[in-house]
Specification:
- By secondary structure, the chain is of the alpha+beta class.
- Helices cover 16% and strands 34% of the residues.
- Strand 2 and strand 3 form a beta hairpin.
Length: 159
């Protein structure tokens, strides 16, 4: 295992703290290219399990953020999207010191649900495959008094 850490690829910006549970991935990064959004991080001690590879919980959190944000990018306004279902296939380890990033390849928005599928990759090597279904709320009951609106805008890139 090398002690050298991967560099953050060009075009990625570090996200600020203050994003709730998402802060557990810090430092983590986002890149926006049109409607496409990618997230990533270098696997560090705080992301690793006892085997010194990326903890599955970190990978699942990253996938959830990427899937929901990818759907939000297709909506007229960013909203909280409760996860209905999120499935994962662990394909290979996220190696310590390596850059992992999301790539979404399917986003569908219907009347009440959003669907998304993608992969977390280490270079061109797939680490985790994910697919999810998210509820598109038609009421303000999810966020009382606008709570969370600023964080959603920051994640989706609508600062």
């Amino acid at each position: 295992m090398s002690d050298e850490l991967a560099a953050v690829p060009e075009g990625f910006e570090q996200l600020e703290h203050g994003l709730g549970y998402s802060d557990s991935l810090q430092p983590f990064y986002r890149r926006i290219d049109g409607d496409e959004v990618s997230f990533g991080f270098v696997v560090l001690e705080q992301h690793a399990n006892l085997m010194h590879i990326c903890h599955g919980g970190c990978l699942m959190t990253l996938a959830d953020i990427a899937a929901a944000t990818s759907i939000n990018r297709r909506l007229p306004k960013s909203v909280g999207l409760p996860t209905i279902n999120l499935g994962f296939d662990f394909l290979s380890p996220g190696r310590f010191g390596h850059w992992l990033q999301t790539r979404t390849h399917l986003v569908e928005v219907k009347r009440r649900f959003g669907f998304c599928a993608g992969v977390i990759e280490d270079g061109d090597k797939p680490v985790l495959r994910y697919s999810g279904t998210f509820y598109l709320p038609d009421h303000d009951g999810m966020w009382k008094g606008g709570a969370g609106d600023a964080a959603l805008r920051r994640l989706a890139g609508g600062e």
